[in-house]
Specification:
The complex is a heterodimer of chains A (about 270) and B (about 200). Chain A has one helix at about 5-15, and strands at about 20-25, 30, 35-45, 50-60, 70, 80-85, 90-100, 110-120, 125-130, 135, 140-150, 155, 160-170, 175, 180-185, 190-195, 200-205, 220-235, 240-255, 260-265. In chain A, the strands form 4 sheets. In chain A, strands 10, 13, 14, 15, 18, 19 and 20 form a 7-stranded antiparallel β-sheet that branches. Chain A has a 5-stranded mixed β-sheet with strand order 2-8-7-4-5, with no helix packed on it. With about 270 residues, chain A is mostly beta strands. Helices cover about 5% and strands about 50% of the residues of chain A. In chain A, strand 13 (about 160-170) and strand 14 (about 175) form a beta hairpin. Chain A has 1 helix and 20 strands. Chain A starts with a helix and ends with a strand. Chain A is rod-shaped and about 100 Å long. Chain B is α+β, with helices and mostly antiparallel strands and about 200 residues long. Chain B is flat. The chains are: A mainly beta (about 270), B alpha+beta (about 200). At the A-B interface, helix 1, strand 1, strand 3, strand 6 and strand 7 of A face helix 1, helix 2, strand 1, strand 2 and strand 4 of B.
């Protein structure tokens, strides 16, 4: 007898699903790919018991504009959170179904509220390894470009085909006509993206004793410079190809001793 | 017993009718009538922003999680044919012309004997095993429309594997004329003083 009232109090206090839902909101903007996004229903604090929250989402990017296909969030509740692994514009629809709160009053009709938000691609890269690393002539040096999002340079969770475009070569002061175009189109063991959303890029200076410009450069001087642009080809939530530019660098190769060099990339 | 009576009091206070009175000014005036609801917006607006409240039910990701299954390793020494690119600064009509020329010369994929001979140095023991000629890479430097076709100057280099960007500053300069459906090599120049070396990027 003594425990029953206490149990009832707990039930009433713990029941959160009440009141008319008036709107819903997301927990942050901008939303970048890989973010955990939380959608939260807002209510008026009234007495109506909620039977269910149904969160549904659809992509409206590109070809999907005419699509009306929704798919359901896997977690249903007044607040639902998901990792956003696709870029694109999304519509999210919340449907709230109510129960009766009074024997004489039918339950209110469902509340349906739809909003949109955009999941943005990464915005650039940061050099996190290999820059300025002294390397023996004839060996390669690996540069690591971390793909990042937004003004705080948050590490991206991202996949796609990385590409580089290298041009404006100047070798020992002599401009070169070579322009690589955007490459590679597939996996390249010397230029690829690893599992940490880093573009891994090998730079190489040959040691051929007769003709390598390395031997003609003064110690402390520049061997060659070039411009390197980076991008990733990926897909949005509808499967449309999206090209994501990830920055442009001026890359210099310098002779720092009799037989060593280093590469230094600076963002343009 | 007195404790039990104390705990029952909040139950009475928190009944739905009491809450409705406090929050909505009482139950609906006409029994059976549903409370008025704002209609769903015709135009989807951007979601407002605010912190999450209460427990967040974490669901499965939206979209496919990034997968980093190692792609099949392309043979870095597989033949790549001939790739000719328009000048990176070409625009408008000029770009259209250069794209046409690039397509014709890429499809042709027939290096001149002089070009092959020019890059014989890549067959030396120093380079064998390090790099391999896998095709040809051309950059258009000049192009112009003629009355019945076009002329174009292209800097050709060998495409080298491994690596997507491995090139030599050494090059030959070939000038082509396309007239009445016929492609003709006008001249080939072997610039002096270039670096017979390989740069990997």
């Amino acid at each position: 007898m003594r425990f029953v009232p206490a149990f009832l109090v707990c039930v009433l206090v713990a029941a959160p699903c009440r009141a008319l839902v008036t709107d819903w909101q997301i927990d942050h903007v901008p939303v970048f790919v890989g973010d955990v996004l939380t959608c939260t229903a807002l209510d008026d604090g009234g007495p109506e018991p909620v039977n269910s929250y149904s969160w549904e989402i659809r992509c409206v990017s590109g070809d999907c504009l005419t699509s009306s296909t929704y798919w359901a969030f896997s977690a249903m509740g007044p607040s639902t959170g998901s990792d956003m692994y696709s870029i694109g514009k999304f519509y999210v629809r919340l449907t709230v179904n109510y129960g009766q709160y009074d024997a004489n009053t039918p339950p209110p009709p469902d509340t349906v509220i739809e909003h949109s938000f955009t999941v943005q691609p990464p915005t650039g890269t940061l050099i996190i390894g290999g820059n300025g690393q002294s390397t023996p002539i004839g060996q390669g040096v690996w540069l690591y470009f971390q793909i990042v999002c937004g003004p705080n340079n948050t590490t991206a969770v991202f996949a796609g085909q990385p590409q580089e475009h290298v041009y404006n070569y100047v070798v020992l002061g002599v401009p070169q006509s070579f322009d690589s175009g955007w490459v590679p189109s597939g996996f390249d063991p010397q230029f690829y993206m690893n599992g940490s959303a880093q573009i891994v890029d090998m730079k190489f200076v040959s040691d051929d004793i007769m003709t390598s410009p390395f031997w003609k450069a003064p110690i402390g001087g520049v061997v060659y410079t070039r411009t390197q642009d980076l991008r990733v080809i990926t897909q949005d939530c509808c499967g449309n190809q999206v090209i994501v530019p990830l920055g442009s660098y001026t890359v210099g190769t310098y002779r720092d001793s009799v037989n060593t060099y280093y590469t230094y990339a600076a963002p343009n | 017993m007195s404790r039990a009576r104390f705990l029952i009091v909040p139950i009475v206070v928190l009944t739905p009718a009491v809450l409705a009175t406090a929050l909505h000014g009482g139950p609906p005036a006409q029994p059976g009538a549903a409370p008025a609801l704002a209609p769903a917006p015709a135009v989807v607006t951007e979601a407002p922003v605010g912190p999450p409240r209460g427990r967040v039910f974490r669901g499965k990701p939206i979209g496919k999680p990034p997968t980093f299954v190692a792609a099949p390793v392309r043979d870095p020494f597989a033949p790549r044919g001939t790739t000719v690119l328009p000048h990176k600064d070409a625009q408008g009509v000029d770009l259209t012309l250069q794209q046409t020329i690039a397509a014709v010369l890429s499809r042709r994929d027939q290096p001149t004997p002089e070009r092959i001979a020019h890059f014989a140095w890549l067959g030396s023991p120093h380079w064998s095993g390090r790099v391999k000629m896998v095709g040809w890479h051309g950059n258009i430097t000049e192009a112009s429309q003629t009355a019945d076709g076009w002329t174009a100057t292209v800097h050709f280099r060998p495409a080298l594997g491994p690596g997507a960007v491995a090139f030599t500053p050494d090059h030959v300069i070939e000038t082509y004329r396309y007239s009445r459906g016929k492609l003709e090599l006008v001249k080939i120049v072997h610039p002096a003083g270039t670096f017979q070396t390989v740069i990997g990027d």
